[in-house]
Design goal:
Transposase, 3 helices, IS402-like_dom, globular
Length: about 70
């Protein structure tokens, strides 16, 4: 069971956000969990390498953040 964080998305939040994410590549990690890791990093001001272990690897999270930042987050 994954740990719950205050930055985690509700099902209704994910439903809205998922419409804006481009799925051009299959990931072995859930896209929702990647978005939650990005949210965790932004909310807590931690560097990518300091993401908790129950999120996908920081390199994966950063890859998607860099790819999506102009489309979704800003």
């Amino acid at each position: 069971m994954q740990k719950q964080y205050s930055s985690d998305l509700t099902d209704s939040q994910w439903e809205v956000i998922s419409k804006y994410i481009q799925y051009q590549r299959k990931s072995k990690h859930a896209y929702g969990r990647i978005v939650e890791a990005i949210s965790y990093s932004c909310k807590n001001g931690c560097v990518w390498r300091d993401l908790p272990i129950d999120f996908p690897p920081w390199q994966t999270v950063y890859y998607y953040f860099d790819k999506w930042d102009t489309f979704v987050f800003f």
